[in-house]
Amino acid sequence: MVRAAILPAVGSPLEIADIDLPAPGPGQVRVRLTAAGVCHSDLSLSNGTMRVPVPAVLGHEGAGTVVSVGEGVSHVAPGDGVVLNWAPSCGACHACTLGEVWLCANALSGAGDVYARRVSDGTELHPGLNVAAFAEETVVAANCVLPVPDGIPLTDAALLGCAVLTGYGAVHHAARVREGESVAVFGVGGVGLATVQAARIAGASTIIAVDVSPAKEELARAAGATAFVVASENTAREIRSLTGKQGVDVAVECVGRAVTIRTAWESTRRGGRTTVVGIGGKDQQVTFNALEIFHFGRTLAGCVYGNSNPAEDLPVLAEHVRSGRLDLGALVTERIGLEGIPAAFDNMIAGKGGRALVIF
After folding, report:
1. What's the pLDDT tens digit per position in 135-146?
2. Rounded to an integer, what distance in angstroms lies between the CA atom of residue 150 and that of residue 190?
3. What is the pLDDT of residues 90-121, one digit of tens each?
4. If DSSP states are collapsed to H, E and C, what string results for the chain?
5. Which of 223, 234, 313, 332 sits most deeply, having the most CB atoms within 10 A of its CB?
6. Are 295 and 321 in contact (CB under 8 A)?
7. pTM for this prediction
8. Residue whose C-alpha is closest to residue 108's, from 180, 69, 51
9. What is the pLDDT of residues 182-201, one digit of tens each?
10. Which residues pair with 69 in a beta bridge?
């Protein structure tokens, strides 16, 4: 039996219960989790902002050790450390053939499968975003695991599965920040802190972190922010005042709220780039008039999973970690058990802290 945090229904509290995992079948891998990050996407799944088949075991940012493998699996073996890849590309859909693997049409095809059962009553359970990391162990498709690069502790490696790939990719792949440019990062949670570090690695000259919580200034500056702005109705004006009244070259929005996206746009200079990482609900409507779109010449773009290819980006990130340029531990502000996930959700809603990490 395996302990897991189960979402019984959208909007319901998580329940800690025992689940029964089958042995891995052909093309599957069983993993014993070492750590799992609590991401805002998990909160969005639990409250219905994003759809998920229920009941489900959530959690998609994790790392652990391979326990056993099914027939046909050769790229990992029992005892190997692995990072969970919640959005594996199929390699055959239109997006994949274009090289845009982060937009794979079949990436979440496994989320509707039944992968386990609740021990107490036999209830069928779905694997959240494919990988069900809020559990002591999980069984996933073989393409949902990637070997942990050499020199990266398993606990830290969990963060590579979402927060770091997303934040790093937003800077290096989506916004393509160049050395000497100015960057504003809206929302300094786990992804935002990774984005700030990525902007520093890219050589940004000015990095302005924006958050509703003044308490996050220390975290932001430790990650590499050169300035901190407490979010208000004057945020765009403050950012322009810090950039010679021009606005930043790049704004990265990590919140997913209409007002924040609009403010990020207004904080970007003429001809600059605004990249939206945050996942908002369908009720979050952002409006622009035709004249300002013409006049400012800005680019507004969405960003899925950092526009990353995990298989290619993990070795790059690992080298940044080994060199000391990327500090994974600096993203974590709380280490918890499975029982602590609901409180971590509450902290996210309240805008507190960076990444909460479940330690098994």
Report:
1. 999 999 999 999
2. 23
3. 999 999 999 999 999 999 999 999 999 999 99
4. CEEEEEECCCCCCCEEEEEECCCCCCCEEEEEEEEEEECHHHHHHHHCCCCCCCCEECCCEEEEEEEEECCCCCCCCCCCEEEECCCCCCCCCHHHHCCCHHHCCCCCHHHHCCCEEECCCCCEEECCCCCCCCECEEEEEHHHEEECCCCCCHHHHHHHHCHHHHHHHHHHHHCCCCCCCEEEEECCCHHHHHHHHHHHHCCCCEEEEEECCHHHHHHHHHHCCCEEEECCCCHHHHHHHCCCCCCEEEEEECCCCHHHHHHHHHCEEEEEEEEECCCCCCCCCCCCCHHHHHHHCCEEEECCHHHCCHHHHHHHHHHHHHHCCCCHHHHEEEEECHHHHHHHHHHHHHCCCCEEEEEC
5. 223
6. no
7. 0.96
8. 51
9. 999 999 999 999 999 999 99
10. 29
